[in-house]
Amino acid sequence: MKCCIIGLGVFGKNLAINLAQLGAEVLAIDRREENVSVIKDEVGAAVVMDFEDTTPLSRLAINEMDAVIIAIGDDFEASMAMTVKAQELGAKRIVCRVLSSMHERLLRLLKVDRLVVPEEVAARGLAHSLLMRGVVDGFDMGSGHAIIEAAVPDALVGKNLTQTAELFKKHAVRLVTIKRREHRPLDKLINTAAGEVRRRTLGVVGLDEVFAKDDIFVLFGGEKGLRAFLEENAAES
Questions:
Q1: For residue 180, what are the contacts with CB-CB under 8 A and spacing of at least 6?
Q2: DSSP assignment, residue 64?
């Protein structure tokens, strides 16, 4: 997959790095040389471009990109200009960071494929983590549904999907995958120093996969169902 990220502030930079780590071919663009320098070794290519002149964008094969993300976070006019230029150049899919309600209305008139408000996404994730027991992160999916990451409920430790299927079914909750702690030599020292725990994603969870104490569940479901599922199974411990 080929992606072009225009605007390398905190949002754009982290998006570009994450996409590259996931295997995407990333072209990163910013008007500030220091922002480009920070990311140039993390992505396929990084370019300095003056946002006031959209002409150079024509030389970057925008029509070959699977997605063009306008991540500019501090310049309404530059964001609009880059969006219009990307459309003119035949971008297959355009995603825009929203700067204001007016900006959002104009982008909708342009029929931009997806609009993103990073602050709202972060706020919703925090809301889930504050309101649901054991939740460490979350993403609002709309219509009252969410994907969350939560510590395995105490009552489920040592069991598997076959044994707990009715518990998931009761609250219409789906186990997407499990993020499991990795135990390697010296990890205790490394994790303590870095403040992080190494984890690997199991992928599709087998019916006989036993849930471990330190597992993080990735769950999908209705917000009420997710909350009830976590509360009920924590209370049973």
A1: 199, 200, 201, 202, 212, 214, 215, 216
A2: G
- Of 218, 209, 232, 216, nearest to 161 by C-alpha is 209
* pLDDT tens figures, 91-144: 999 999 999 888 999 999 999 998 888 776 666 666 655 656 667 777 767 677
**The listed CATH number (3.40.50.360, 3.90.550.10, 3.40.640.10, 3.30.70.1450) that belongs to domain 121-235:** 3.30.70.1450
pLDDT computed for residue 192 by the predictor: 43
Angle between helices 161-170 and 223-235 (to 10 degrees): 130
Rounded Cα gap, residues 28 and 17, in angstroms = 10
d(CA 163, CA 147): 23
Contact 80/65 with Cβ under 8 angstroms? Answer: no
Answer for the pair 3, 24: CB distance below 8 angstroms, yes or no.
Answer: yes
Domain ranges for the chain, please list them: 2-116, 121-235
pLDDT(187) > 80: no
Which residues are CB-neighbours of 188 under 8 A, at least 6 positions away?
Answer: none
User: Using alpha carbons only, what angle is made at residue 132 by residues 129 and 135, rounded to the nearest 5 degrees?
Assistant: 45
Summary count for the chain: helices (H), strands (E): 8, 11
* CATH fold of the domain at 2-116: Rossmann fold (3.40.50)
